[in-house]
Specification:
The protein is an alpha+beta fold. Helix content is 45%, strand content 11%. The chain starts with a helix and ends in a 6-residue tail after the last helix.
Length: 273
């Protein structure tokens, strides 16, 4: 494994003591080097960038080839500003030249069924909603890999679910379509470079044959120290990972409106049986 690749692996896990991968290539190196970008330059995207990203997104796996997702590309400054307000006033939404809103879209199959005079009995079930949500996520991650290969950066915006009805109105979404997340896309600002944030050790997420939490406490304690050191280097006022996740999920107020998601989805035409 090349020295540069091992440096990227070490950054990904926050330790220089990790064993090199036995297999590696340019694609894996790029994946190891992923980081969320929250500061963009005002450099416009080259013509055809959106179409290129969607072409890269569409080969992603899709359940039963239903392709139950769509995406809205937002470049209008005022619309990005309004979407930012709906998503917790995150400045990089209107700073980035492109904001992609990835959608779980069951409306397309509904229109096809209506044209054929057929009732889709399976559509109002939770499985169908999950199908569209997973399809959108897989497609979006393909696009992220593609955009990073082009020198672009991005950050996912789950805050678009703070008010999915408001976002749906802004984007003129039909019934049975909801925004799964947004994605800011642009050229990373050299003035505020994004850093690679260490991930959990493989011992915490990789299980062989059956699930086992044996030894988890020690693994997580070690990760808390690594992530805490990363936050200190970045001047962030945050403790380790364990405290962070407990703090995030301790109170319903931290959902910022997403606790109403079930009712909103029902009003937007989704059956949740």
């Amino acid at each position: 494994m090349a020295a540069n690749a091992h440096l990227k692996l070490s950054a990904r896990y926050g330790t220089h003591g990790i064993s090199p991968l036995t297999q590696c290539n340019e694609v894996i190196e790029q994946l190891l080097d992923h980081r969320s970008v929250r500061a963009f330059t005002d450099r416009p995207l080259p013509s055809g960038t959106i179409e290129t990203l969607i072409a890269a997104a569409q080969p992603a796996s899709t359940s039963s080839n239903l392709q139950a997702w769509s995406v809205v590309a937002v470049q209008d400054v005022d619309r990005k500003q309004r979407l930012s307000a709906l998503a917790g006033n995150q400045a990089y939404i209107h700073q980035a030249p492109l904001f992609l809103v990835w959608l779980a879209d069951l409306s397309r199959v509904s229109r096809i069924a209506e044209q054929q005079g057929v009732e889709l009995e399976a559509l109002p079930y939770l499985e169908s909603l999950l199908l569209g949500t997973i399809d959108a996520a897989l497609a979006a991650q393909n696009a992220v890999v593609a955009l990073e290969s082009l020198g672009l950066g991005s950050v996912y915006i789950g805050g678009i679910r703070n008010d999915i009805e408001g976002a749906a109105k802004e984007l003129a979404l039909p019934p049975q379509v909801y925004p799964v997340f947004g994605l800011c896309v642009g050229y990373p600002s050299p003035d505020r470079p994004a850093k690679v944030k260490p991930r959990l050790p493989q011992e915490a997420v990789l299980h062989h044959e059956t699930y086992s939490a044996a030894g988890e406490e020690g693994v997580l304690t070690d990760y808390d120290d690594r992530l805490g050191a990363f936050y200190q280097r970045e001047g962030m006022n945050a403790a380790g990972w364990s405290e962070q996740v407990v703090s995030r999920l301790r109170s319903v107020s931290n959902l910022h409106g997403r606790e109403e998601l079930l009712g909103e989805l029902a009003r937007m035409g989704f059956g949740l049986r």
